[in-house]
């Protein structure tokens, strides 16, 4: 690597355009939002920057606190489910034969390359009260009911009178399914790469010394891949918390998350200053989470080296 | 590792784990496959409730829906134009970070990565506010494709950091002695760049371009905020159609877009493989 002074013209020829672009179309817009978040609506179209803190105070209104709590709960639940599903998936990929590995990875990554809107729309098709998922559940219900009849318990109606379709759309359940569906690849990849780096001799030693499979998993495998799990949790959680499309399409306005309310301030409610304050709040949370993850990784890395 | 011993790490061989993987795969693919199947459903009523026989008429309908086709063409145009710029900016960023030592370098490197990590909604909203604050709006009747400028700017901004990341990875495998040899033999700065560095970067440039292209084609949220009433992309159009009803026509259009994405992805992976073996 050479010092930029040695070749200052070449340096600025490369540095100038990118830094300029980033400044103009990324940081200036964020700065404008930041200024607006201290503004007030004076008329329908005019915003005056009065450096008021009113917009930030409104973040503590009960309605907004409920919104934060709901967003947090949905994201935490979905992240937990992603980890529970994602860990075994990553484990299978990491231990597959050399030939099978790239294909298994591809299976997980491919949906990720498909348009997010289309994936969400595809879920919308399935999750309706008369959608395919309820068809499947009804089929299982009939199967179960038939089985009960067969063993002479049919009269007890253990499964209820008839099949009641589950309402997914417009409920937290539907949104959680959507969030997990969309973000699962984010979870699998970091766990997979942690498993790949793992020294497998530890597992062998543990099993040789008489520990059970479960004990080995709990005391060796999981702790050794914890950094990967933490990374997976963070990079799954962050985009979930800022989700717009999934709660919008599957929640149908009944299960709003932060981004839906932000969007409404700009699209229909026309309260830009409050929308700006909400956006910045979401941005700050993202930064805090990223910083926490960086600190965690540094600490873990330090431990291993020392 | 000794092969004949029972491998303690052989989770992939366990039937229970295989079942979990199979269920995971079904979970990821079933919705998309069902959607594709029902794009051939011969049912006039939307909602895709019952299978009524095979038809391709919804593909015809999608192709004859002018506003849908226009949105599709817009999406492709935006993707192509923004990809060109994203790759140029991404390559420049990668070269700067790879070649030079300069003050506050970690800060710059972090700033370039920022568009990757911040929530899409924040970026969409801030760009929308920015365009309106400076009054940057293409006047009615601007010739195609310049009427799409706002969206294209937005797409370049969020995709070039991804391209920079991919290209930087490729650059890290560059052998600097080649550059020095060329210079010793009298090559100018520009000649070194054109004849030595650029050919080495090529697989990275292609991989970065394909990534930027799919990201642009995929984006909904940021486009949703930066598009005007007359400049609509495919995802935004589908979104507005879904608001009214779920129709086989949207399934058909979505299937076509999935095909396009699959082809681009396959190309991307082919080029990445070539890049790996070239080393």
Automatic annotation (TrEMBL), chain A:
<feature type="transmembrane region" description="Helical">
    <location>
        <begin position="12"/>
        <end position="36"/>
    </location>
</feature>
<dbReference type="Pfam" id="PF00528">
    <property type="entry name" value="BPD_transp_1"/>
</dbReference>
<keyword id="KW-1003">Cell membrane</keyword>
<dbReference type="GO" id="GO:0005886">
    <property type="term" value="C:plasma membrane"/>
</dbReference>
<dbReference type="GO" id="GO:0055085">
    <property type="term" value="P:transmembrane transport"/>
</dbReference>
<feature type="transmembrane region" description="Helical">
    <location>
        <begin position="173"/>
        <end position="195"/>
    </location>
</feature>
<feature type="transmembrane region" description="Helical">
    <location>
        <begin position="274"/>
        <end position="296"/>
    </location>
</feature>
<dbReference type="InterPro" id="IPR035906">
    <property type="entry name" value="MetI-like_sf"/>
</dbReference>
<keyword id="KW-1133">Transmembrane helix</keyword>
<feature type="domain" description="ABC transmembrane type-1">
    <location>
        <begin position="68"/>
        <end position="293"/>
    </location>
</feature>
<keyword id="KW-0813">Transport</keyword>
<feature type="transmembrane region" description="Helical">
    <location>
        <begin position="103"/>
        <end position="124"/>
    </location>
</feature>
<feature type="transmembrane region" description="Helical">
    <location>
        <begin position="216"/>
        <end position="241"/>
    </location>
</feature>
<comment type="similarity">
    <text>Belongs to the binding-protein-dependent transport system permease family. CysTW subfamily.</text>
</comment>
<feature type="transmembrane region" description="Helical">
    <location>
        <begin position="67"/>
        <end position="91"/>
    </location>
</feature>
<keyword id="KW-0812">Transmembrane</keyword>
<dbReference type="InterPro" id="IPR000515">
    <property type="entry name" value="MetI-like"/>
</dbReference>
<keyword id="KW-0472">Membrane</keyword>
<protein>
    <submittedName>
        <fullName>Transporter</fullName>
    </submittedName>
</protein>
TrEMBL record, chain B:
<feature type="transmembrane region" description="Helical">
    <location>
        <begin position="20"/>
        <end position="40"/>
    </location>
</feature>
<dbReference type="InterPro" id="IPR051789">
    <property type="entry name" value="Bact_Polyamine_Transport"/>
</dbReference>
<feature type="transmembrane region" description="Helical">
    <location>
        <begin position="76"/>
        <end position="100"/>
    </location>
</feature>
<keyword id="KW-0813">Transport</keyword>
<keyword id="KW-0812">Transmembrane</keyword>
<feature type="transmembrane region" description="Helical">
    <location>
        <begin position="148"/>
        <end position="167"/>
    </location>
</feature>
<dbReference type="GO" id="GO:0005886">
    <property type="term" value="C:plasma membrane"/>
</dbReference>
<dbReference type="GO" id="GO:0055085">
    <property type="term" value="P:transmembrane transport"/>
</dbReference>
<feature type="domain" description="ABC transmembrane type-1">
    <location>
        <begin position="72"/>
        <end position="268"/>
    </location>
</feature>
<keyword id="KW-0808">Transferase</keyword>
<feature type="transmembrane region" description="Helical">
    <location>
        <begin position="204"/>
        <end position="225"/>
    </location>
</feature>
<dbReference type="GO" id="GO:0016740">
    <property type="term" value="F:transferase activity"/>
</dbReference>
<keyword id="KW-0472">Membrane</keyword>
<feature type="transmembrane region" description="Helical">
    <location>
        <begin position="112"/>
        <end position="136"/>
    </location>
</feature>
<dbReference type="InterPro" id="IPR000515">
    <property type="entry name" value="MetI-like"/>
</dbReference>
<protein>
    <submittedName>
        <fullName>Ornithine carbamoyltransferase</fullName>
    </submittedName>
</protein>
<keyword id="KW-1003">Cell membrane</keyword>
<feature type="transmembrane region" description="Helical">
    <location>
        <begin position="250"/>
        <end position="269"/>
    </location>
</feature>
<dbReference type="Pfam" id="PF00528">
    <property type="entry name" value="BPD_transp_1"/>
</dbReference>
<dbReference type="InterPro" id="IPR035906">
    <property type="entry name" value="MetI-like_sf"/>
</dbReference>
<comment type="similarity">
    <text>Belongs to the binding-protein-dependent transport system permease family. CysTW subfamily.</text>
</comment>
<keyword id="KW-1133">Transmembrane helix</keyword>
């Amino acid at each position: 690597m050479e010092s930029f002074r040695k070749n200052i013209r070449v340096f600025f020829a490369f540095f100038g355009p990118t830094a300029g672009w980033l400044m103009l179309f990324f940081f200036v817009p964020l700065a404008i939002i930041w200024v607006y978040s201290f503004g007030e609506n004076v008329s329908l179209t005019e915003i005056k920057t009065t450096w008021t803190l009113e917009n930030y105070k409104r973040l503590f209104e009960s309605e907004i606190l409920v919104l934060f709590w709901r967003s947090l709960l949905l994201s935490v639940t979905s992240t937990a489910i992603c980890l529970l599903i994602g860990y075994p998936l990553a484990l299978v990929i990491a231990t597959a034969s050399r030939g099978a590995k790239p294909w298994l990875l591809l299976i997980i990554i491919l949906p990720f390359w498909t348009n997010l809107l289309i994936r969400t729309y595809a879920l919308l098709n399935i999750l309706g009260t008369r959608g395919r998922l309820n068809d499947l559940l009804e089929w299982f219900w009939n199967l179960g009911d038939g089985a009960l009849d067969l063993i002479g318990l049919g009269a007890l109606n253990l499964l209820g009178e008839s099949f009641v379709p589950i309402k997914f759309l417009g409920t937290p359940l539907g949104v959680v399914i959507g969030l997990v569906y969309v973000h699962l690849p984010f979870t699998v990849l970091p766990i997979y790469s942690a498993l790949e780096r793992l020294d497998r001799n530890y597992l062998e030693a543990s099993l040789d010394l008489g520990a059970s499979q479960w004990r080995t998993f709990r005391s060796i495998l999981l702790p050794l891949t914890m950094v990967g799990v933490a990374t997976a949790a963070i990079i799954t959680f962050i985009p979930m918390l800022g989700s717009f499309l999934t709660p919008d399409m599957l929640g149908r306005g009944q299960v709003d998350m932060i981004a839906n309310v932000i969007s409404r301030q700009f699209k229909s409610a026309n309260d830009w200053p409050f929308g700006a304050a909400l956006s910045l709040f979401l941005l700050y949370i993202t930064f805090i989470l990223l910083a926490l993850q960086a600190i965690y990784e540094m600490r873990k890395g330090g431990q291993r080296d020392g | 590792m000794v092969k004949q011993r029972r491998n303690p790490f052989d989770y992939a061989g366990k039937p229970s784990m295989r079942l979990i993987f199979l269920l995971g795969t079904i979970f990821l693919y079933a919705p998309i496959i069902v959607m594709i199947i029902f794009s051939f459903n011969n049912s006039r009523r939307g909602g895709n409730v019952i299978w009524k026989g095979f038809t391709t008429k919804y593909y015809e309908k999608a192709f004859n829906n002018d506003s849908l086709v226009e949105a599709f063409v817009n999406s492709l145009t935006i993707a192509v134009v923004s990809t060109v710029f994203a790759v140029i900016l991404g390559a420049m960023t990668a070269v700067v970070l790879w070649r030079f030592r300069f003050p506050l370098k970690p800060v710059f490197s972090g700033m370039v990565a920022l568009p990757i990590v911040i929530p899409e909604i924040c970026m969409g909203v801030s760009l929308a506010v920015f365009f309106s604050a400076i009054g940057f709006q293409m006047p009615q009747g601007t010739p195609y494709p310049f009427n799409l400028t706002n969206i294209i700017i937005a797409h370049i901004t969020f995709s070039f950091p991804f391209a920079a990341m991919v290209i930087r990875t490729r650059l890290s495998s560059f052998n600097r002695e080649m550059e020095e040899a060329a210079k010793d033999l009298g090559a100018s700065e520009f000649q070194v760049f054109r004849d030595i560095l650029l050919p080495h970067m090529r697989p990275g440039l292609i991989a970065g371009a394909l990534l930027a292209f799919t990201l642009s084609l995929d984006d909904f949220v940021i486009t949703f905020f930066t598009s005007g009433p007359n400049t609509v992309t495919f995802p935004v159009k589908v979104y507005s159609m879904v608001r009214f009803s779920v129709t086989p026509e949207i399934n058909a259009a979505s299937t076509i877009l999935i095909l396009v994405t699959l082809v681009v992805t396959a190309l991307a992976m082919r080029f990445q493989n070539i890049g790996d073996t070239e080393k």
